[in-house]
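Summary for the steering committee. The consortium agreed at its last meeting that each partner would contribute one worked example illustrating the joint modelling workflow. Our contribution is presented below. We chose a case with several input lines so that the handling of multiple components could be demonstrated. No manual editing was applied between input and output; the record is shown as generated.
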Amino acid sequence: NAGVTQTPKFQVLKTGQSMTLQCAQDMNHEYMSWYRQDPGMGLRLIHYSVGAGITDQGEVPNGYNVSRSTTEDFPLRLLSAAPSQTSVYFCASRQTRTSGLSYEQYFGPGTRLTVT
Amino acid sequence: KNEVEQSPQNLTAQEGEFITINCSYSVGISALHWLQQHPGGGIVSLFMLSSGKKKHGRLIATINIQEKHSSLHITASHPRDSAVYICAVRYGTDKLIFGTGTRLQVFP
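What follows is the complete predicted structure of the assembly.
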């Protein structure tokens, strides 16, 4: 199993550009989420999904869109990049609590995004 | 006030020392996670616990639900243990709140 994969690893954008961060998992996990990590702050939830076709907002959703057309993929779209979105982005996946299985969280390797 | 507080923020140790990292939280939780983030940036899950104590190799995690406190211990620390250790609590509708992490450096 590859686990959780993310692409790209690094990205530099100009203000106003759009892009999509890719995330995929091969563990058949229902729950997927996107976090951002900023210096001096804990990981903060951007958006999450409890299954294909279902997404919801997290703590810091503004400026980001997500979709979940398959169980495996959960892309994060930046609509119009701003310097405040400079951060490290982590995708994560796990089983849902109702599945009765262990819901240990698995993280992707991260995407370091700089917006100039 | 943060809902998840970790202490210390930074920790240096000599190889072989016993390490303790603390995590206190203010919300009712269903589980607590300890995570490790290496200098390369990747995050791995070390423990998930809801009561008592868990041990894996030289790592031990304990939790006291009544006191809303958890500790992560590293016995016989090694330079390869150098990383950021993150506490996260699971609450409510299955959401996570993360601490800001404890940066550990172990010197030979």
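DSSP finds no helices and eleven strands in chain A. Chain A has a mean pLDDT of 92.
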